[in-house]
Amino acid sequence: MDAIIVFFGQYFGYILIGLLALFFFKKRFVFLALQMLAAAVLSRGIITEAIRFFFPQDRPFVENGIAPLIEHAASSSFPSGHASLFFALGTVLYFYNKKAGILFLLASAAIGIARVAASLHWPIDIVAGAAIGIASGWIVVKLSRKFKH
Q: What are the tens digits of pLDDT across the range 109-133?
């Protein structure tokens, strides 16, 4: 069971990014790639980092004095950067292809659940990260579509 948690919590995200990258070599997906990049920067690079700076929260393994399944620095856990990133990408993808977007969002949830099981995050970290990611993806798509037309 630990191997499954480690796979989803640490490595599965790389597979998802790799799958997305395969499509970005086609010219028709350039705008989608730019939207995903903008949503990722907004959710993970700006909002998540600002919240972590002003409202630091110990990770479960720090607070409980246990070793996590996945090695990690004792940095702030709230909100989850993985959740904000992958839910932002999944939300943007959803606007282009609902089926692929739903699958990506489910995969994002699996990553979040694994990171809770690995003692890297509290459940609220994942929920907050998902909300930030979904909101960021939605905002980027809506704003970029206004500027595209």
A: 999 999 999 999 999 999 999 999 9
Record the tokens describing residue 149, joined without a space.
Answer: 């037309």
What digits encode the pLDDT tens for the residues 49-62? 999 999 999 999 99
Cβ-contact 16, 86 below 8 angstroms = yes
Question: Which DSSP string do the residues of 62-116 spell out, in sequence order?
Answer: HHTT---SS---S---SS-HHHHHHHHHHHHHHHH-HHHHHHHHHHHHHHHHHHH
CB-based burial of residue 100 (10 Å sphere; 0-12 exposed, 13-18 middle, 19+ buried)? middle
- Fold observed for domain 2-148: Vanadium-containing Chloroperoxidase; domain 1 (1.20.144)
Residue spans of the domains in the chain: they are 2-148
